[in-house]
Amino acid sequence: MSPDEDDDQLLERLRRVAAEADAVPENVLAAARAAFAMRDTDVELARLVADSAEAGFEPVRSGPVAARLLAFDGGGVCVDLDVEVTAGRTVLIGHVSGADACVLERGDGVRQLVPLDELGRFLIGGVRPGPLRLRCRGPAGRTVATSWVTV
Hints:
By secondary structure, the protein is α+β, with helices and mostly antiparallel strands.
């Protein structure tokens, strides 16, 4: 056996041990698969500019409802999103400005039309936990998508 073969076998054993001892969490793998599957070089990114969870704020509402506030901005589109979890059910309440149509994309590849009212507001119930983003038609027909967030 050559020294290169010995090194290859050692590296393979180390990979197996590392995979068993420190496996990648499933939610990280799901988010990575979602980001890779939904990549699009023609999409402008509306980046996350505010997240109440990262800012260390206490829950927005007290009681049985947990809420998280998110704000995205980019490509002429602004999205304000309130993620509420009540009794295990997730509801998205939002407002979009600068866009006339949006689709909710989930990490599992499912897409759902987001019904916007005349003021750009929307309500989506029964959202499954996991990575998601909004893809909107912005100014001059350009596609703008929020960065992926996990709810």
